[in-house]
């Protein structure tokens, strides 16, 4: 049963669609089936309490919102000792009758008189009862002084870590109707046979986390009414844990470098530092991201070597590839060739632009047949980054120029022009334009003739963007790209319209030797993604674009497109070395469009100032301590102050403390630039439901 819709053919430049990869279900080092089953069931049954945004929920133990008052060690230990000595003194005074015998009155009031008259059994009873009474009084004194001396806090802080080292007790087994390993929601819906089969597969060690997530996704399509229950049941009874496979046939990634929890969709990036600047509820907890956070888009800024690719991009790409195998997501990962974005085996489509051995091609026009739509996206990629030096080459006017050529060309040839053909048309070459006009005349296509006439009138005029467009297209009309961007039908280039399917795509850009062309292609992918993701018919699939190094790709239209993704169950992950790689008018808009923002160790003070402004200020309690010298009037006091000054070297002073509420930046530009340790970052989060997490200092190595 395929519950993720029709299978998308894998586009190839030279060959038909290759066969799916063999099913691969790796186990932990070839461990026995029973061991793998126990490990999987323990993971499945582990608690995942509701938590604040960004907290790693697997096994999380919620903490109080406010930090409890911590007594200084010297004060705590001295108080405990003094309380013990006071209790010992009180008992000694009572035992030796220095305080009288009033404390024995309760005992004497309840003991019968004949116990004192010499009978043997009476003396024994009196001895036992009196010893019990003494023990009760001593215990009461101990409890009282223990509470006063905070002995329980001393035990928790200093003694318990040394003597409470027993093995953690396993939680009691849940009832079958509550145990997730018995699939109770399937049984409640009438799919008891399928539930029995899946429970047996899990108990036999043949199920993994991807299998569970994929089958849960398939069940959601049944519960929503998109697929019949009988089809789902037959697929499960036939294939077991391998039911409802991804079109590639893969059941897991070949390698994992991060911790993933597919029940919650989270990937762990590190842990919140135990730092006073972090809210107490976050300190020491694991920090993780999932679709509910990536749906607001993610921006990471940090210099080279700060960990953007290895500590952020690679784990997120892994997580979304796993989500795609589970039928929950579609992911497009874009970066320079050799950037370490994961092995090719983790992806369904790997497009190596400019590499002669690339198996896949890329659709320059985004798979659309509408000339106006194709022109708008292509113009955004070609001239979207241009500003004052080329006032006529804005995206709107450039889109009009391209539409005036793409429409007539498609009307004549039934396809869009290739890169060399588009360059000739933009250059105003007479022969291609004459042939195009002749074909339109013969076809009697008056609307397209008017488009072509308008282009010829504007060509060469002041402010005409045609020349700039031709120069930009010339960057793609290089011998290295001769076999790419085919429009003749000899190949089937990959199109981002495949985001309706759980596809995993990696696009390698030719940064080395073709940096300007790589920036054009990065803008093109971003423009096509925002257009395709926002206009999908089925938005139940989370779509995400990961763009490693988004320098010179952010345009006004790109910012608007990113803002629209939140309502389309889609998001972007962008990284920058510095905000200087974005045009000054767009920096604030980009920070506002991204719901999750990360400043890594080593950002510049001017980048830190931008983050400090977007994170705003907070009210804190400031304590001002003033030392005032004590002036003595009495001779004896003067002598004692003199002796104290001789011993300590300081005059006796008295402190006055003033507490007031002040407003300050959550993280200042100086703190972001100089106080973030290596391997750390400051991260703020926003969910698609509008929940916020303040800027947190995160250890990306934790």
Automatic annotation (TrEMBL):
Pro residues compositional bias: what residue ranges? 16-25
Stretches for region Disordered: 1-34
Q: Does the keyword field hold Transmembrane helix?
A: yes
Provide a Gene Ontology MF annotation, just one.
ATP binding
Q: Which InterPro entries match?
A: P-loop_NTPase (IPR027417)
Superkingdom classification of source: Bacteria
Q: Which UniProt keywords apply?
A: ATP-binding, Membrane, Nucleotide-binding, Transmembrane, Transmembrane helix
Which chain regions cross the lipid bilayer?
A: 76-98
Q: Would you tell me the protein name for this molecule?
A: ATP-binding protein
Q: Which organism is it from?
A: Streptomyces polyasparticus
